[in-house]
Design a protein that fits this description.
The protein is α+β, with helices and mostly antiparallel strands. It has helices at residues 3-9, 19-35, 64-70, 85-97, 99-126, 147-154, 156-160; strands at 39-46, 48-49, 53-56, 59-62, 73-82, 163-164, 170-171, 175-183. The protein is built from seven helices and eight strands. The two termini are 33 Å apart.
C-alpha cells in the first residue's frame, strides 16, 4: 500500500521518521493484506448528458457537477467496490483495544479501498477506455441518496454483498460507488 497516502490520511508529513508510526503502518498493512478480500463490480452503460443531469436508460442522476464531469461522453462505467466485512471487524476490535492502531488502520483501509478503485480504472484503461475522473454520490451536488440508484442498477447487495442503510451509508464501511465517464473513441 502507498505509505505516503496513508500518512496523508493521518495528516502527517510523508517525510516522517517516526519509527513507531511507520512500524504500526507496516503492521496494519500486513494484517489488512492477510484478511481483507476486495470485491468490485462494474457495468458499462450508454448515457445522455444534459446541463444538470446524467441519464442512463430511465435512471436520472441530478447533478450539475457530474454532468460537467461526463459532458461529451457517450458511455459511463457504474461501479461498486468493497473491502468486505472483515475490515469492519478489525476496526471494531481495535477501536476498543488500541485507539492508536485503530486510527492507523482506518487510514490504511482508506488507502486500500482507493487502491482497489484505482486498479479497476487501470483494468478499464488496459481495455482501451479513456476515463474521466470518478464521481461518487455524496460529492459536490450529487446527493448521497443517489446511491440507491447505483445499488439497484448493478445489484451490489446481491452480487458483492454491499448493503445500503436507511441513511444511505454503505456496509461494509470501506465501500465505494462511483460513476466514471468514458470518452468517445
Amino acid at each position: 500500500m502507498n505509505k505516503a497516502e496513508i500518512l496523508r490520511y493521518l495528516r502527517t508529513s510523508s517525510k516522517t521518521d517516526d519509527e513507531r508510526l511507520l512500524s504500526l503502518i507496516d503492521e496494519c498493512c500486513l494484517e489488512i493484506n492477510a484478511c481483507v478480500k476486495p470485491k468490485t463490480l462494474h457495468r458499462i452503460y450508454d448515457c445522455k448528458v444534459t446541463d444538470d443531469s446524467l441519464i442512463i436508460g430511465n435512471v436520472v442522476f441530478h447533478s450539475v457537477r457530474l454532468a460537467e464531469t461526463v459532458k461529451g461522453c457517450g458511455r459511463v462505467c457504474v461501479f461498486g467496490a468493497t473491502l468486505g466485512t472483515e475490515c469492519d471487524r478489525l476496526l471494531r476490535t481495535y477501536s476498543t483495544t488500541d485507539i492508536s492502531k485503530s486510527m492507523v488502520l482506518q487510514a490504511c483501509l482508506a488507502s486500500k479501498i482507493e487502491e482497489v478503485c484505482d486498479k479497476l480504472e487501470d483494468t478499464l484503461r488496459a481495455e482501451g477506455m479513456c476515463l474521466r475522473q470518478r464521481f461518487s454520490p455524496g460529492y459536490f451536488d450529487l446527493d448521497i441518496r443517489e446511491n440507491k440508484k447505483i445499488f439497484d442498477m448493478i445489484e451490489l447487495t446481491k452480487r458483492i454483498g454491499i448493503t445500503l442503510t436507511d441513511t444511505y451509508q454503505m456496509l461494509p464501511t470501506k465501500s465505494v460507488t462511483a460513476i466514471i465517464g468514458i470518452e468517445n473513441d
